[in-house]
Amino acid sequence: MIIGTAGHVDHGKTALVKALTGVDADRLKEEKVRGITIDLGFAYLPSNTGEILGFIDVPGHEGLVHTMLAGASGIDFAILVVAADDGLMPQTSEHLAIIDLLGITRGIVVITKIDAVTPQRLAEVSQQVGAALAGTTLDGAELLSVSAFTGQGIDNLRQRLVATSNELPRRSADGRFRLAVDRSFTLTGVGVVVTGTVLSGCASVEEHFIVSPAGLHARIRSMHVQNSPAKTARAGDRCALNLVGDGITKETLRRGDVVLDTALHAPTERIDASLRLLPSEPKAIGQWFPVRLHHASTEVGARIVLLSDETLAPGMQADVQLVLERPIAAASLDRFVIRDVSARRTIGGGEFIDLRAPSRYRRTPERRAQRAALALADQTHALSSLLTTPPFVWDISSFIRDRARPESEEWRLIDALDLTVLETPSSRFVVDPEFWQRFENSVADKLAVFHAENPDLQGIGREKLRLGLEPRLAPLPFGSALTRLAASGRVALDGAFVRLVSHVVRMSPADEETWAMIEPILGGSSRFRPPRVRDIAAAMERPERDIRKVLKLAARMGRVDEVAIDHFFLRSTVGEMVQIIADLSADAKDGRFTAAQFRDRVTNGRKVAIQILDFFDRHGLTLNRNDLRRVNRHRLDLFGTLVHLSAPNDGRESSPVGRPDFKSG
Questions:
Q1: Do residues 152 and 17 both lie within one domain?
Q2: Sheet (strand 592-593) strand order
Q3: Are residues 531 and 391 part of one domain?
Q4: Measured between alpha carbons, how far is 272 from 277 in angstroms, rounded to an integer?
Q5: Is the pLDDT of residue 638 over 60?
């Protein structure tokens, strides 16, 4: 059990910890000189059952509340310390508010320095404290009176803490590993060490993790748990990790970093959250209000974006968006506290809802419904609710990652809710059975109408079909949905076109005969520079209009693509060129290539090479900026080709995280 102290400066928190454990938690020279706690202190108490109680002693000074917050996150049990001679003081109230905002429900109030007051004064302070606890998470908490100087009440308090530790169930460790760093230092002969409380999951020596948000890879060489050497650590443990890896130094690691499972590394700087403003605030807060955000052991500047037209009044609670000065590592449903920018007072706090909050359309009814679903603690209910609100599809991989849950949880949810899975290169989207049935019927109806109105066309373009459907999917899951429909035999995919399997465009016997003569002219060694319509007509001694008609019909059937006016390439050749540009992009350090590099690979003239690349630009397969192109990996199957993708080089722009496009539906 991790126990955290809280209370006003000089109310005896450090003396109390020393009396309980025999350890002086003030380790800094300046703390000894000034007689107050400046940084976090730590002590441990073995119990008769073999359990070890860990104590985090926090400073009580007004200017060090940010340090107190770094220690308070992740504790299991709070000791609110009140000196009998002083009674309730400003930081007593502020620390109690922080305990309440962090949702710490287990704790005890210890009235210290009872040797210096009369029984009447002790009764008076006890009454003050009881009134202050009303309405907080410590409402009804037990009050004990002690004197660290005489030892009165210390044995009783120690016994109560040990008994509570034995009764308190251990935190579940089935999530992914996260440790919030509150100290970083070096030890001679050991190396870099970080300490912190394990927020979730478990870790073992020799396992590899990431230090987020910096993204530094690290291996655990050794560890201490509750001040003793160990091989494993789990949620709720107080831990010291000896880390090694490229870039791992005392200077690169700092308080506020999080050592976490590599799959969880996805820093965020825009978060939708539920925020409660303390009743003690003098006035309401308005749009773009500046604050200091405290989460786990990190502190960062932030702005509050109100998600309604009204200001947030003292004592009220509302959904807001937090726009941070820099990214942090967090998890959905984590608690946070906000203070004013001058660090003089705590303003409020709450719970993170959505770590991937959009910057636009954040006040729509759809977003309100999504936030309500994401705020549900039970992930089965949360995902089920999400899938009944627009856009009716969700990235389950992102959903599970942001809650720090293991990957196995994805398939448990998929099975429990009988979801349809839409796989993409970067994400796994899911939809519920009712939506999938509506989507299938919508696609079939749309294609049937299109074929009736355009019997001579091969099919409808993918993007035109997507935009015309109701319900509409975002581009990423839509491509996967089409692939799923094609696999089930509901539709056929002809490159960039979609058609019903029953719809076939056929050439007349005469046109087929002409096509049989044209096809070899477009292929072979000259396939990357095929002749134009006029040249083919001249070679075959046929009218241009006849050749053009057959080629146009072949294009509608997906046999050729008109790259430029009257310049047709075989579909198989277009597929080869798609693979070439994919290879060029993979070989480039930043994923970008030039027209000259493409020209050299297809042994073409510059003019024709530019025409081909412009064709790919128009179809969104390549993205052109300042004559440098990169591949849009999500459209590589546009021309019906299975493209082999090499692993991207370091420094390449990564594919965007699959996430529903709220503007799309």
A1: yes
A2: 592-593, 628-631, 622-625
A3: no
A4: 16
A5: yes
- CA gap 319, 403 in Å, rounded: 19
The torsion angles phi and psi of 639, rounded to 5 degrees, stand at: -110, 25
Could you identify the residue written with the tokens 């004559």?
627
- Specify the number of domains making up the chain: 6
- Of 142, 167, 192, the one marking the end of a domain is 167
* CATH number, domain containing residue 61: 3.40.50.300
Question: Token digits for 603?
Answer: 């042994």
DSSP assignment string, 64-130: GHHHHHHHHTT-SEEEEEEETTT-S-HHHHHHHHHHHHTT---EEEEEE-GGGS-HHHHHHHHHHHH
Q: Give per-residue pLDDT as tens, 348-396.
A: 999 999 999 999 999 999 999 999 999 999 999 999 999 999 999 999 9
Under the banding of pLDDT at 50, 70 and 90, the label for residue 265 is very high
Domain enclosing residue 494, as ranges: 434-500
Pairing of strands 298-306, 289-295: antiparallel
Return the structure tokens found at 257. 């970093």
What are the E-state strand segments in 286-375?
289-295, 298-306, 317-328, 335-339, 346-354
Residues 103, 335: contact at Cβ < 8 Å? yes
For tokens 């949905």, the residue is 481
Domain identity same for 287 and 391: no
Torsion of CA 618, 623, 627, 628, to 10 degrees: -150
Return the number of other C-beta atoms located less than 10 Å from residue 139's C-beta: 12
Question: What is the value of pTM for the model shown?
Answer: 0.78
